[in-house]
């Protein structure tokens, strides 16, 4: 492939890591295929393991429904208490949202549409040994 | 009785899939949701 100076190929393994030795990159993806219309789906997603803390950096949510939908992730300031979006939205937590060992992430997804829809929530963060 | 629905989840740590599977989520009306969240949070 012909490359101009503006299009330099970067191989990800050559990039320096910004993580410390006891930190792990953490991602969570949650999808529900058929959320009933005008109903809320709630889910106990993840409990922070013993000896760790989770530093949430960001997240996103999506829906195939045409209406404005609502998600709520407890203990996450960016999504709480009401976070409305249309098709897809992403948020960054600055500063990071810190979740301690034993805390549980709870997902809430309200399908505001009159039809079934597919929806999901994705989160990214750093799992740190303490 | 609370309706239940299947959902899918995946946990990726350091680029590797550590856990992947199906879960069970609850389907409730909006008025009950806040109560459910508060109850579960208090249980934790």
- What is the helix/strand order of chain B? EEH
Biggest contact:
A-B, 32 and 26 residues
- Sheet bearing the most strands of chain A, described? 4 strands, antiparallel
Helix content of chain B: 25-40%
Q: Which structural class best describes the helix and strand composition of chain A?
A: mainly beta
CATH architecture term of chain A: Sandwich
Gross morphology of chain B is elongated
- Spatial order of strands in the largest sheet of chain B: 1-2
Largest sheet of chain B: 2 strands, antiparallel
Q: Residue ranges of chain B: pLDDT <50 for 5 or more in a row? A: none
Counting helices, strands and paired strands, the structural category of chain B is: alpha+beta
Overall morphology of chain A: elongated
CATH class bucket of chain A: Mainly Beta
Could you tell me the strand content of chain A as a percent range? over 45%
Distinctive features:
heterodimer, A: 130 residues, mainly beta, Jelly Rolls, 4-stranded antiparallel beta sheet, elongated, B: 44 residues, alpha+beta, two-stranded antiparallel sheet, 1 helix
Can you describe this structure?
- The complex is a heterodimer of chains A (130) and B (44).
- Chain A is 0% helix and 56% strand.
- Chain A is mainly β.
- Chain A has a single domain, classed as Jelly Rolls, CATH 2.60.120.
- In chain A, the strands form 2 sheets. A 4-stranded antiparallel sheet of chain A has the order 1-8-3-6, with no helix packed on it.
- In chain A, 32% of the residues are buried.
- Chain B has a two-stranded antiparallel sheet with strand order 1-2.
- In chain B, strand 1 and strand 2 form a beta hairpin.
- Chain B is elongated and about 40 Å long.
- The model of chain B has no long low-confidence stretch (mean pLDDT 85).
- Classes of the chains: A mainly beta (130), B alpha+beta (44).
- The interface between A and B is medium-sized, with 32 and 26 residues.
């Amino acid at each position: 492939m012909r490359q101009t100076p503006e299009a330099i190929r970067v191989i990800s393994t050559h990039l320096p890591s910004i993580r410390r030795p006891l930190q792990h990159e953490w991602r969570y993806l949650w999808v529900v295929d058929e959320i009933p219309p005008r109903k809320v789906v709630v889910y106990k997603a993840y409990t922070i393991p013993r000896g760790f803390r989770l530093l949430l950096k960001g997240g996103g949510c999506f829906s195939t429904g045409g209406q404005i939908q609502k998600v709520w992730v407890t203990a996450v300031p960016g999504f709480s208490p009401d976070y409305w979006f249309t098709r897809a939205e992403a948020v960054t937590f600055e500063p990071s949202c810190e979740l301690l060992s034993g805390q549980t992430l709870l997902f809430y997804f309200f399908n505001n549409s009159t039809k079934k829809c597919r929806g999901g929530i994705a989160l990214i963060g750093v799992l740190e040994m303490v | 009785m609370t309706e239940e629905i299947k959902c899918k989840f995946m946990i990726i740590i350091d680029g590797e899939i550590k856990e992947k599977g199906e879960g069970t989520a609850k389907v409730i009306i909006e008025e009950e949701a806040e109560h459910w969240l508060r109850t579960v949070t208090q249980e934790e």
